[in-house]
Write a structure and sequence with these properties.
By secondary structure, this protein is mainly alpha-helical. It has helices at residues 21-46, 48-63, 69-80, 88-112, 123-134, 140-168, 173-200, 205-230, 236-263, 266-269, 275-278, 284-296, 299-305, 314-326, 329-349, 355-369; strands at 13-14, 17-18, 116-117, 120-121. α1 (21-46) crosses α3 and α12 (284-296) packs antiparallel against α13. It is globular, with a radius of gyration of 21 Å. Its cofactor is Mg(2+).
Length: 380
Amino acid sequence: MLGLRPADADAVGTADGPLTARDAARAVETELGRVLDEALRRALDTDPVFARDIAGRVVSLVLRGGKRLRAAFAWCGWRAAGGSGDFTPVLRTGAALELLQAGALIHDDVMDGSPLRRGAPAVHVELSRLHGAARMAGSSAAFGTSAAVLAGDLALAWADDLLTETALGSPYGPQLHREWRAVREEMVAGQYRDLHAQATGASGVDEAVTVATLKSALYTVERPLALGASLAGADAPVRDALCAAGRCAGLAFQLRDDLIGAFGDPALTGKPADDDLRTRKLTYLLAVGSRLAETSGDREASDALAPGAPRASDEDVRRMRAALERTGARAAVDAKITELAVTSLGHFDRTGADPVVRREFTALVERACGVAPQRTGEAA
């Protein structure tokens, strides 16, 4: 336990000092435990089989890990907007964001056919095995897919319930709900644009940025910052600065994820390292690689990175990685991540946040993007 002060404390902190974003992320773990215990009890009252197979797997996924970055960014948004006193609504909003992410991950794994999530079989894979073990008639894969859709729906419903309860108890509930409504719609739009890009063989950089922004950047950083700021009654200039900071940091986060998806170690990431390449999914990395290959006249790289081609073999994936290195795409994306992270810090500074909060935001951006950004004018 963190030794949190009572809800009516004059200052935000633990019994030993100010509460940091990292403390807040850990406190969200405690809040999630309470929320999920209650949700699982309700599920058991509804039906024990549903509770065991569906609700229990959602609980397991949520508690199995994750960096809790969204919860930490919500905390930073609240503090940047002058939040103080009772921080319970911020923790509950952070918990709702974690549930929202769980639902999105479950559905995303189904759509992408990803076998792993957080170092364990994805929910649809677990449920397929459950079907096979039960020796029921029909396709175990179809059963796993259908049941996983329900599991994702349940996580989203729990997220909505928690956010609604928080909004109803807050004087800033209407603004909180508007931000929540926006993030849900943006997530769906992003998932669809991802599917649409794959179906149409899109390869443009602008299209890749649109998908990355809608599908990940907004709900990873921008909206969490705005949700936290809403709970502090942020004015328009502060909210605008936070949204600009969040969009840049969120896009940098997704570009880093693209690099990890192409070159990462599954033992460290807990998910396959070649899914995006194998399916030739439109990412900023792949789009930049295709553009650089075309510009330089590298026909071999253009062919290797071509969108819409059949599912890549192991040898095709090797050639794609080599092409991304040879064309300079990997280095270009790395440089873009650093540029976006630095720009994000500049936008955040416009909030007038306390230096302590600025340092915490910088540390969060470093964790999210895998770089150590420095504000313009700082010594190297």
